[in-house]
Amino acid sequence: MSASRLYQITKTFLQYGLDEFVPDNKKPFLAKCARGSAFWLTNRHTEKSLGLRLRLALQTLGPVWIKFGQMLSTRRDLLPDDIARELAFLQDKVEPFPGDAAKMLIEQALGIDDVSELFDHFNTTPLASASIAQVHTATLKQDGQALDVVIKVIRPNIEAQILADLALMEQFARYLASWFSEGKRLRPVEVVKEYRKTLLDELDLMREAANALQLRRNFTKSEALYIPEVYSDYSRKNVLVMERIYGIPVSDTDALLEQGTNMKLLAERGVEVFFTQVFRDSFFHADMHPGNIFVSRENPHNPQYIGIDCGIVGTLNREDKRYLAENFIAFFNRDYRQVAQLHVDSGWVPHDTNVEEFEFAIRTVCEPIFNKPLAEISFGHVLVNLFNTARRFNMEVQPQLVLLQKTLLYVEGLGRQLYPQLDLWKTAKPFLENWVQEQVGPLAVIKKLYANLPFWAEKMPELPDLVYQNLKRPPASANMTTITPVKPILLGLLAMTGVMGSLLSYFQGANLLAGSFGLAGMVSFWVAWRKSSH
Ligand SMILES: Nc1ncnc2c1ncn2[C@@H]1O[C@H](COP(=O)(O)OP(=O)(O)OP(=O)(O)O)[C@@H](O)[C@H]1O
């Protein structure tokens, strides 16, 4: 299977003449020989531009490649303009499949004879089509209401194609891991494993529906981000019905400027939304290419993003989140020693790394870009420096952070396009400082105690018995009093009873039961103290 897929990929690349991306005089000898030996695979699209050929080749090869093209399209600073423009079509204008087939899939999935049973004005011409699915407009008839919706339908037969590409990637990853010196550090097998999970999850629209509902809940009443409503009752594994939105695509800068959008605020909000999702919610939209982001037409002076396609979301564990935030803050304070130390402590670089040398290397990469607006930072240059530093210090790829890094690239690209004067660091710093403060400050302690209240409310009735039994316990030996070892435990337990009781009374509107616990705790505390000190 993998061999035939490999042949298919090579054939597509050569028949679209993509080998022309590397000029003849720069091609390694072996590559020239290989090209010459596949003489029957000639460029069949000579009349088309290189950008168009690349787009068509990626489209022919399917979702995995289309996603790669979408990502490339956002790096206008690294690609020639005409190629980036062509690739941008992959965000929402991929060749559609027939509308009648989509209609049939919807009817089958929802168990109806005709879409008109549930929807009016179903349009068989798709509104848009991208890597995984295509989208049709309709009006949902629900409880006497007519709701403007879109119906997203997964492309038929794409799973087999995705699985074939993944199998090929897995083979390459294993090969890279065992044959190349960089294999261990880059952890290709683990990275492909994560990617596999992410991509296959995206084929399940019930998952996307759940993600969208969660994200919508996280941003209820937010001025910065709106997530359209999902109608889960009409959603299945391959069909998703959701509120239709009419925003301006974020890549349409002209339209945004024309309606007088506050571009600075919009770019800053992009950064804010990203950091809020990552640090506050630990649940972030991880497919933030421009085809999935719109800007509301209302209130251009107070612009709001609209996010769609929540098929890929990322999460971080507490530890990674903590290290990341501390890293960012140390970086904002130009404390490169701390950045280096954090990398060692978190295990992102080996434990025997020379922290001083590492600090120096980080300073060399970061200092030139510090406090500069995006327009003055050469992204390609920074990336090359970062890769070199990572290699020099044997920094392993962290598969759990790859999605986040990809998203960060999107956010940076977005900011660069919307408002090149954006100072990414200045925008993010106050947000992160607040977040860290909230994690360690007194409010955080109270919040944690509050979160544990149900547990303590359940355990508290047992405490008086525990206290009584402990006080009654006979001395273990004549030389040892029971008081000494029991005292700290008792004091701890009782003080906690008191505190929890008071907290309960405070948070639950001082109800009688909670108040009594507080009082009982305090009284037992006093009795125990008297007893223990005699
Ligand atoms: N709720 C909506 N309202 C209006 N248009 C929408 C809506 N949802 C999707 N679209 C349009 O359909 C396009 C494709 O939708 P979506 O991004 O969900 O498909 P996909 O195949 O999962 O895409 P991707 O390649 O990003 O994974 C979007 O770029 C957008 O233009």
UniProtKB/TrEMBL annotation:
Residues 90-342 form the ABC1 atypical kinase-like domain. Keywords: ATP-binding, Cell inner membrane, Cell membrane, Kinase, Membrane, Nucleotide-binding, Transferase, Transmembrane, Transmembrane helix, Ubiquinone, Ubiquinone biosynthesis. Its EC number is 2.7.-.-. InterPro entries: ABC1_dom, Kinase-like_dom_sf, UbiB, UbiB_bact, UbiB_kinase. It comes from the Bacteria. Pathway: Cofactor biosynthesis; ubiquinone biosynthesis [regulation]. It is a single-pass membrane protein. NCBIfam families: PRK04750.1, UbiB. This is Probable protein kinase UbiB. It comes from Pseudoalteromonas xiamenensis. The lineage of its organism: Bacteria, Pseudomonadati, Pseudomonadota, Gammaproteobacteria, Alteromonadales. The gene is ubiB.
